[in-house]
Amino acid sequence: MEAQRLLHGFCSNSAIPPIRNPKKPFFMIFNPSLDHSKRWASFKTHHYDAPQTVSWSKRRLECRNSVENAGGFTGGEKGLESGIRRKNLAVFVSGGGSNFRSIHEACLRGSVHGDIVVLATNKSGCGGAEYARGKGIPVILFPKAKDEPEALSPNDLVAALRGFEVDFILLAGYLKLIPVELIRAYPKSILNIHPSLLPAFGGKGYYGMKVHKAVIASGARYSGPTVHFVDEHYDTGRILAQRVVPVLADDTADELAARVLHQEHRVYVEVTSALCDERIVWREDGVPIIQSKENPNDYS
């Protein structure tokens, strides 16, 4: 009988200068088993000083201790290095996942230097989860709920993403609050897209059509998507990118939503590309900016 391989150490996610992600030593035993009829990735974890069991649908993962050399930002001298490795992405969805699909397609055609290696959802039957299964992308459930007995706890979720060697997490219409355990495990590595120009029309309860109805009712002349880093609250993390669309005098919520969504698909792919290319730079005042791919001396 083939012996199980006992592997030591978390796989670190890629750090964004000048931050390195913390590592907690523990042991992981990988044992591939899966209910292929559902294409679930099943995880069972314990405390960090106890054996960890992770099952995956695609292949046996070999975790290794690694420290990314973040270094300091040197402006134009750094540029876009040809040796940058492809990044592993996790996407979180609660609905149809149109942004998830646009990012996945960009990865496949080479516009994004990364791969979506796992999808997390709180709704096993949502459109995003069905799309992932159809593309062979493992699906995991979070958070735990009465109607989702296979869902993970926050600590199990962190261990699962570490097992998939995830570098960055992209929220794409995910409606649950991200647990502090995940934020601490992936500092400055979790992004969200919101369908308004934050900080306006953001926070708990502002999602989907509720946002667009509120924008129209306010009399605002402009709206558009915002990509921001995720903190422990709804829609309050540092803003990374925005796109502006007009709010027309006779707009309906559906019409405005379609106009904003078109820009969402574009800006989220652009930001994900910059993230995987390691072109996100943090100013001394804590504001993240994006280094141009064409001209490393330009930022947005």
UniProtKB/TrEMBL annotation:
The keyword DNA-binding does not apply. It catalyses: N(1)-(5-phospho-beta-D-ribosyl)glycinamide + (6R)-10-formyltetrahydrofolate = N(2)-formyl-N(1)-(5-phospho-beta-D-ribosyl)glycinamide + (6S)-5,6,7,8-tetrahydrofolate + H(+). Its EC number is 2.1.2.2. Gene3D superfamilies: Formyl transferase, N-terminal domain. This is Phosphoribosylglycinamide formyltransferase, chloroplastic. Belongs to the GART family. One of its GO terms (molecular function) is phosphoribosylglycinamide formyltransferase activity. InterPro entries: Formyl_transf_N, Formyl_transf_N_sf, GART, GART_AS. Pathway: Purine metabolism; IMP biosynthesis via de novo pathway; N(2)-formyl-N(1)-(5-phospho-D-ribosyl)glycinamide from N(1)-(5-phospho-D-ribosyl)glycinamide (10-formyl THF route): step 1/1. Coiled coil: none annotated. One of its GO terms (biological process) is 'de novo' IMP biosynthetic process. SUPFAM superfamilies: Formyltransferase. Residues 87-272 form the Formyl transferase N-terminal domain. Keywords: Chloroplast, Plastid, Purine biosynthesis, Transferase, Transit peptide.
